[in-house]
């Protein structure tokens, strides 16, 4: 039991010495939620968060050579930042599976569909959280479909089981929603779920803002995972910008001028003129001056030609 807890919190990025210290204080039979709270109280942070907070010292490098920062090795092993433009993805496995199973069956195939959708977009950091008791054989009151998918995703280091155990025949389950929000918050990523996590919003004001701004809802349409094109509403960012670390601003859409070619505003017109696309837009006064100067100059050239003859 001690080793399983140690391995679990090490996967979350906590230092081994901090975990051992907490287990010594609370005892080997302490619940995982209590261990997590004690780690937070001690000020212990996952290695990913520490590497972001502590700036790396400046180092002179010869021109043309490549260098690696101390934190880059950890990031490369975890594959959390192999893409500079896409956000990490944290999936609420229970929510996705039950949604795909019409709230009657825990459908692991739904989790696979969601993971494949983000993989095809190029996301390299994808984590799915599922309670440990979902490993147990399916029962009549909690049916599970395609359970082998969970094992395959675990081998790929995508699926993480939140701890649970039995005490005197009664199952003790840790709150998996807290793991989901905490990891997504620390990774500055996106939560994939149709749950609003209202209790966690009330628990932590920083989590409240994060959940409101980084929650990606979804639907399943004929075994197709479909997030909305406007995750934060019609006036919010597009789906591509929502999932990107560096959003791309859309090109301005110009409204055509209602007067068309009859417009007399020249370059002061705020509307779009397709006929002026390849020529400089002049004001009315400049256009009149241009029309007057052209024949005047042409007349002078004709006079010079006559004198030369």
TrEMBL record:
Keyword Transmembrane helix: no
Cofactor: Mg(2+)
Annotated PROSITE patterns: ZF_C3H1
Superkingdom classification of source: Eukaryota
Pfam families from the UniProt entry: RNase_Zc3h12a, UBA_6
Zinc finger (C3H1-type): 251-276
C3H1-type domain segment(s): 251-276
GO MF terms, alphabetically ordered: hydrolase activity; mRNA binding; RNA endonuclease activity; zinc ion binding
Entry keyword set: Endonuclease, Hydrolase, Magnesium, Metal-binding, Nuclease, Zinc, Zinc-finger
GO CC terms of this entry: cytoplasmic ribonucleoprotein granule; nucleus
Record family assignment: Belongs to the ZC3H12 family.
PANTHER family xref list: N4BP1-RELATED (PTHR12876), RIBONUCLEASE ZC3H12D-RELATED (PTHR12876:SF11)
The protein, known as: ZC12D ribonuclease
Species for this entry: Trogon melanurus (Black-tailed trogon)
Record lineage: Eukaryota, Metazoa, Chordata, Craniata, Vertebrata
């Amino acid at each position: 039991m001690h080793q399983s807890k140690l391995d679990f919190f090490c996967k979350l990025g906590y230092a081994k010495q901090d975990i051992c210290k907490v287990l010594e204080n609370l005892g080997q039979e302490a619940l995982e939620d209590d261990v997590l709270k004690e780690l937070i109280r001690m000020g212990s942070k996952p290695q990913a968060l520490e590497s972001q907070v502590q700036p790396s010292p400046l180092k002179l490098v010869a021109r043309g050579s490549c260098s690696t920062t101390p934190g880059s090795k950890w990031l490369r092993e975890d594959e959390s930042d192999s893409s500079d433009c896409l956000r990490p993805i944290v999936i609420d496995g229970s929510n996705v599976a039950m949604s795909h199973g019409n709230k009657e069956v825990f459908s692991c195939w739904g989790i696979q569909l969601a993971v494949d959708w983000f993989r095809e977009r190029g996301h390299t950091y994808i984590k799915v959280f599922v309670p440990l008791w979902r490993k147990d054989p399916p029962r009549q009151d909690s049916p599970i479909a395609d359970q082998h998918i969970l094992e395959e995703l675990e081998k790929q280091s995508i699926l993480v089981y939140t701890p649970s155990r039995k005490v005197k025949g009664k199952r003790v389950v840790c709150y998996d929603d807290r793991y989901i929000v905490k990891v997504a918050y620390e990774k500055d990523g996106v939560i994939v779920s149709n749950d609003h996590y209202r209790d966690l919003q009330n628990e932590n004001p920083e989590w409240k803002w994060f959940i409101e701004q980084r929650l990606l809802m979804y639907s399943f349409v004929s075994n197709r995972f479909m997030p909305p094109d406007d995750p934060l509403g019609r006036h919010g960012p597009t789906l591509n910008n929502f999932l990107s670390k560096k959003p791309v601003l859309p090109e301005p859409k110009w409204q055509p001028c209602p007067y068309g070619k009859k417009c007399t505003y020249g370059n002061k017109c705020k509307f779009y003129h397709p006929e002026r696309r390849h020529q400089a837009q002049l004001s009315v006064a400049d256009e009149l001056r241009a029309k007057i100067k052209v024949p005047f100059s042409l007349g002078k050239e004709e006079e010079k030609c006559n004198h030369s003859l």
